[in-house]
Each structure stands twice: as structure tokens, then as C-alpha cells.
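Annotated sample (chain length 180).
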Amino acid sequence: MRTRRTVLAAISAATLLPGADPMTVRDLAGKAVTIMPGKDVTVVTFISTQCPISNDYNDRMISLHNKFTGKGVKFFFVNANSTEPLAVVAEHAKAVGFPFPVYKDENAADKLNAQVTPESFVFDKTGELLYHGYVDDARNAARVQNHGLRDAIEAALAGKGVSQANTKAFGCTIKRARRS
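Output written by the structure step:
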């Protein structure tokens, strides 16, 4: 018998993208890098140098990276703000002490329809999108009750579904370049 929670999880999962097309980002040297979910669990998190909410999550993102690196998880921390040039992103990453690469976005935010920083996406080993939403549910780390991103990574590594596939990411809006 299906429980209400199972039905809600299935409905939430149905609203996710079926799989990911390749996405392009640039490393801090300007070299193109392709994000192609599949094989490993893939986490794409959009971050900002200027957003105070995104910056409140820096230590938590470092902690998640350190916890899951080497366990079959690939992380891509992506800056999609057109108002934050590559040099500023590189300086911020160094000043914060990120132990992971940070990338400038080419098309990942548009392909994933990312809206804010921080905002995370977790793909399973087949490239299916399992989770979209917040890192956790509270800007103040002492008030966190739900660890959406961590729980999604753990479920993906275990080959299980995510009980809450969509959560409401909150933060500063991504500043996209104007199109003519």
C-alpha cells in the first residue's frame, strides 16, 4: 500500500527533469569543462561571491564536499552571475579557502532553470535528476532541521529515491546577462 509520503515523493519526482543534457562551465583559467551527469553521483550547486546568503553556506558546502569526495560524488560549484567576473570569482574562492574548483557558468543555470544562490541539483549514477533545492532549510546553521542536499547525496549513493525531491531554494537571484 502506498503511503501519502510515497505518493507525494513520486509526484515531486515527476516534476524534476528526466535527465540532464551536457552543460558547459569554465574553470578559473577560462578552459571549457563539460558537466555530464552519469557514472558518479553529480552535484551542481550555484554560488555567488556577493550574496550574503550564499556566503553563509560556504562552510557547509566545504563540509559536504569533504564528506563525500572520494565516495563516488562529483561536485560542480558554479557561479552564474554575469555581474561577478572570473577574476572576482577566483579571488573569492581563494579568500574563502574552497578546497574544490569553482566554475563560471556558460549554460548550466539556463539548462537547469536555476534561480538563486545557493541552489543545488543532485543527479544519480544514471544521470537522472533526483533532487533540486536548498542546501538545508536555515541560513543560520544552528537552526537547521532538514539537510536536503546531504540527504539527497546519501540517497543517491545508496541507489535510493529521495524522500523530498524538491525543496524551495532561497537566496539571491542569479544575475543573468541580458540577451539582445
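Annotation: The longest helix spans residues 4-14.
Annotation: Residues 4-173 form a domain with the Glutaredoxin fold (CATH 3.40.30.10).
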